[in-house]
Specification:
mainly beta; 8 strands; 3-stranded antiparallel sheet; single chain; 12% helix; 39% strand; 5-stranded mixed sheet; 2 helices
Length: 153
């Protein structure tokens, strides 16, 4: 009986454990659930030059699109810090969404995973604002999450 109670007590914690994110300035919709490197607080600790894995579940597309393009934006004190996304990760239909996701129709629900190998940032020991998002073929925003990250040396 105690095992059942322990499992019942842990399940809600596992379901609710997600990365705290906010809507991006572009107004794009948020995924229902987000996990970035297992982070559950803010700012998220991100090791410099270490992989970044971001999962977004239950993204609802606001538009019809044949393609999904991934992007990352990093800002420090409002200034853009270069953080190019590897070319092989830009096409989110090929890298990041389940096979058969694209083309996407308005109202379709899908999941996305960004598995970034990491890169050396010119800053460490500071908190930056990060945006991870997807755009449609016409450039309109499909989804975007914003979060604070502390860059660790």
């Amino acid at each position: 009986m105690y095992k059942v109670l322990l499992i019942a007590a842990l399940v809600p914690a596992l379901v609710l454990a997600q990365t705290p994110v906010r809507q991006c300035p572009n107004g794009a919709g948020l995924p229902a659930t987000v996990d970035i490197n297992g982070c559950t607080g803010s700012p998220c600790p991100i090791q410099n030059n270490a992989p970044i894995v971001a999962h977004g579940w239950d993204i609802v597309s606001p538009v019809d699109t044949a393609t999904l393009t991934a992007y990352i934006s990093v800002r420090l004190l409002g200034l853009e810090v270069p953080f190019p996304i590897p070319e092989e990760l830009v096409d989110a239909c090929e890298a990041g969404t389940p096979p058969g996701t694209c083309p996407v129709s308005a109202g379709d629900v899908f999941d996305y995973t960004l598995d970034h190998p990491g890169m050396e940032l010119p800053v460490a020991g500071v908190t930056v604002q990060v945006e991870v998002g997807l755009t449609a073929a016409d450039g309109s925003a499909v989804t975007c999450v914003a979060f604070d990250a502390q860059i660790l040396a």
